[in-house]
Please model this.
Amino acid sequence: MAHENFTRVTEFILTGVSERPDLQIPLFFVFLLIYGLTVTGNLSIITLTSVDSHLQTPMYFFLRHLAIINLGNSTVIAPKMLVNFLVKKHTTSFYECATQLGMFLVFIVAEIFILAVMAYDRYVAICNPLLYMAVVSQRTCFLLVSLTYLYSLSTAIVASSSVFSMSYCSSNVINHFYCDIVPLIALSCSDTSFPETVVFVSASTNLVFSIITVVASYFNIVLSILRIRSSEGRKRAFSTCASHMTAVSVFYGTLLFMYLQPQTNHSMGVDKMASVFYTLVIPMLNPMIYSLRNKDVKAALKRFLTNSCGSFKLM
Model:
């Protein structure tokens, strides 16, 4: 049938996490709590690593940007999602949907590469400690982070442009709680081979490159730790990268499950749960992962609260 016989789509309708009316209010409070914890945790990490003199090292510089990325990723998704729990019509305009997808891709690609950069940082710190400050200098840190943001922005522009260059006709119901690539491609009434190829090549290339960086870094880290003679030394070396290993395993595991399965095997229900995990749950968990077992962060928080209380008493 000719495309002219279709009504062109100017807005989309999001089905949300669940279409059951009785679950909307309970889910609203659950995700409001998750988002509240995400904002609190990541803002705390950003603040502490910015103001505390003891946390002015490359590791905490990268952690600050991971927190910025996590906060941005969650904020692109959560506010609109929370509003949709409270209203009957879950509409989003064509351009609002395109903007949300583009911003989501910026932060998700940036997270992929900032985790790889953090793995490299731990590799240099453990395997070449004497050269650490020379190799991971302030200039190098700024360069790595700048390249991460620049690459993620360019990738997001290319991928989102390819998705929204397709024709959308008549059907405008996105079976998701935000504008994501897979359900948008499923709605298109034009040939989807080009955007599917762009998205698959981009996602697989990004994941493979970053995973190789992470695996190579940790392979050398493990070898270096095994060479340490004292058990206390091995324990101390391992503790410096345990949090990052946990965060990497959770994040990459979810993304691999989500994007590198064949299109025909996609189940939207399972994909929604995976999406909830890496867009909302992981950004909430990362501040906890990096702070609960980190003595430096806990000490910085104690100093910050002490100083804040002291300043308040002087007022």
